[in-house]
Amino acid sequence: MALPEKLNVLELFCGIGGMHYALQDFEVKCAVDINTVTNAVYQHNFPSQLLAQREIQSLTLKEIENLGVNTLLMSPPCQPFTRVGLKKDLEDQRTDAFISILQLLDKLSSPISYVLVENVKGFEDSLTRDQFISILSKKGYIYQEFLLTPLQFSIPNSRLRYYCIAKHQSKGGHFVFPLVEQVQCKVPDEALHYLLDGHKYIDIDIPENSQTCDTNSDVQLTAEQITSAIDNDERISLLGNFLESSTQCASDYLLGEKGKKHYQGLDIRTANSRNSCCFTKRYGHYFVGSGSFISTGNKLEDDTLELRHFTPEEIARLLCFPQKFRFPDSTTRKQRYRSLGNSLNVYIVANLIRLMTLSL
Ligand SMILES: C[S@@+](CC[C@H](N)C(=O)[O-])C[C@H]1O[C@@H](n2cnc3c(N)ncnc32)[C@H](O)[C@@H]1O
């Protein structure tokens, strides 16, 4: 097996840097995002990183060619592909930046070797996806699409996401696994051997209710409905391994009166649970369908359980951000939840980058 080459990366829609943390043996030549809040978080963690605060539509062919990158990582806005975002797809202006990059990919004189895209479930059925795939095919890439959730990597969190990894044919016409036309809902058997050491991959079917807590979901199910057999699958880590040990957070993050009104609809977990809902950008100010709540073990006077929010640090841990990841003091709690809700599972992306760049 050939050693993976060093990746020179253009990280677009970089947010708080989930893609950056997923990389090994790399140089991020440039990261780009328009959001001042997430850019402050990114820069806090990567102070010497070139980070361009600008509209991605304003990037020119020449600028990209001058960067000399061989890898393009993107997680474009997902609202155009969700029900709450009205699934406007190409007609949603938030898709424009991604389309402008596809147009540049089409015109590049020398193709970028590797392209990875992450988005919500729903993207795979969009016209935007069709345009993306059509450019990949036209420009001579092989590609594989996936729908994966951290539960399959024994991480107690549901976050079903679309991923596409693409490699230019000049880097070899195959991955370490056979290509299939359909979106893969599992890591192919042939690829298992190459996964990173860390969270163990387990062969589970993606639970049907994974969608219920998806970003911007408008489906509101009760906690009982959401809790599935997955919660008892002993191959998945206990949530307790991802929780703060300090009792301070219990009091700082307790559910207020407003939250208690939604008690019946909340997804309630304990340290012994083996699943949690997808934490969306609404967590912290919406209750039902925005993410899970944890029982402190105490009972309240009205006989309900005392509950608290997951802390941003706990959510970052479930997303597999490294321990060293920090928010600057200036980032408010609401902004922390929002930016984590928009981010991604670092461990899954790290594995996909590996599968994308390995050659036999
Ligand atoms: C789904 S989030 C990506 C999150 C990122 N992967 C992370 O780990 O935090 C989409 C990001 O795209 C940025 N964005 C959306 N439209 C943009 C545009 N036209 N130009 C630059 N950035 C844009 C948003 O600010 C947001 O941070």
TrEMBL record:
PROSITE patterns reported for this sequence: SAM_MT_C5
GO biological process, one term: methylation
Record GO terms (molecular function): methyltransferase activity
GO cellular component terms given for this protein: nucleus
Keyword Methyltransferase: yes
UniProt-annotated catalytic positions: C78
Keywords attached to this entry: Methyltransferase, S-adenosyl-L-methionine, Transferase
InterPro entries in the record: C5-MTase (IPR050750), C5_MeTfrase (IPR001525), SAM-dependent_MTases_sf (IPR029063)
Superkingdom as given in the UniProt entry: Eukaryota
Keyword DNA damage: no
Family that this chain belongs to: Belongs to the class I-like SAM-binding methyltransferase superfamily. C5-methyltransferase family.
NCBIfam families noted in UniProt: dcm
Entry-linked PANTHER family: TRNA (CYTOSINE(38)-C(5))-METHYLTRANSFERASE
Protein name: TRDMT1
Origin species: Bugula neritina (Brown bryozoan)
